[in-house]
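Hi R.,

Here's the chain you asked about this morning:
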Amino acid sequence: MKVLAVGKSHVGLKRKINEDKYLLAPELGLFVVADGMGGHKAGEVASRMVVETMADYFQKLSQGNPPAFIQAANKGISEGANHLVNAIALSNMVIHEAQKKPQYRRMGSTIAALLAEEDCLWSANVGDSSVYLFERGRLLQISEEHSIEAEQRSLGMTNADGSTNPLMRNVLTRVLGLSEKVNVYINPIRPDAGDQILVCSDGLVDYVPHQSIKTLLDDFSMSAERKVDVLIEEANRGGGGDNITVILLEVMKEGKWHKLKRRMAAKR
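And the predicted structure, written out as tokens:
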């Protein structure tokens, strides 16, 4: 699968430190957004641990020396997807172990990651960083939000106007580093040429309405880089109360020769 990927991050208007980190590694087929938390710069440390662990894992995998699996493989997903889950589980262990140092106690991070395979993108996440597929004018959430607010919505525990308890907003039920093991949500995406995939921290979706995101992504006169810039600008215009990180992938059309070469390489 051939994709064009652009990623950028901004501290926002209210925070002094950017605790978001992101990774663009098209040569590995890997794209990651991590949103750290913990205070005293510990959130920044946690998110950096995530992107560094993920990059190191898939670099070793590309060299034929993958780290050992720390949990049983899932037979319902591909080998690459199992490595994606394993890399996230390893990131969780790295953060959890680092918490033994007093300055890192209770730090953690969310993660939203994409892994590109031949005809599929695997989306995996923990926490409230998000993955969306934009296809034919529709913005579809692929990731699963792990927060009390999301659980309230799923159980129908909403007010008359459809809102939830504002005190529960952004209270996460699942995060990297919280415990020795983590449950990773993973889902396949099989996009067509022209589709776009958005990976972002909650600093975007908390301050930019979905309709505004759809309108922007639907403007095919605008480059992917410009779309990322405008999304960040809109989040700041909406309040900029959090760090803002955006990765945008555009699925490119491949010629027959490129498809044939890719299939031949996959059989080796």
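The mean pLDDT is 91.

Let me know if you need anything else.
M.
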